[in-house]
Fold this protein.
Amino acid sequence: MNSPFSISVSKTSSVPSGSIFIDDMDANRRVDKLLDNRSKIDKEIYQIQSECNHKTKTLRMLPEGSFHEVRWVCEDCRKKLGWPQKHELDVFMGTENLKPRRLQ
């Protein structure tokens, strides 16, 4: 039975055959180092945001997963501060003067 699909796997490496675990271990160490760096960065951001007075906030459209959301954000530390009220969202979106239309 012939399949219309084919899978081709090739690995080019200067490492002798049978040493695949060396590459995997190296990748694992690099990933661990990156995750550690991300953790340090997240802690530093948390520290900065917790010490900020959040004097100036603006409405921003922020990516959240596969969609965007409008949130109040501190201009200094970029911390999400809250959700806008409906009239604030209407002004932000430029729809404050639009009248609702009935569908017929």
